[in-house]
Design brief:
Helices cover 9% and strands 32% of the residues. By secondary structure, it is mainly β. About 6% of the residues have low confidence.
Length: 81
């Protein structure tokens, strides 16, 4: 099985490849929120796929089962036109 790799040269060819960049986050729905461990009170910003449940998020010190959201959500900011 042979794979063909395209060598990107300079100039116009490089510009063509630069314009083909795909933003992966457009295809991976996710939540961004502040979470806290109820056991050790450590807080951090959690970025996780939408199908990950809070009970599955693990604190680095305490493990899974102690994490809840604080209610602070971060997402795309809408323009106020």
């Amino acid at each position: 099985m042979s794979r063909k790799f395209e060598v990107v040269q300079g100039g116009a060819e490089r510009e063509r490849h630069k314009n083909n960049v795909v933003e992966l986050t457009d295809y991976q729905p996710h939540f961004v929120s502040e979470v806290v461990c109820l056991r050790c009170l450590r807080r951090w910003i959690s970025v996780r796929p939408e199908d990950v449940m809070l009970k599955d998020i693990a604190c680095l010190a305490c493990g899974p089962g102690f994490v809840i959201e604080t209610g602070e959500y971060f997402g795309e900011v809408e323009d106020e036109d």
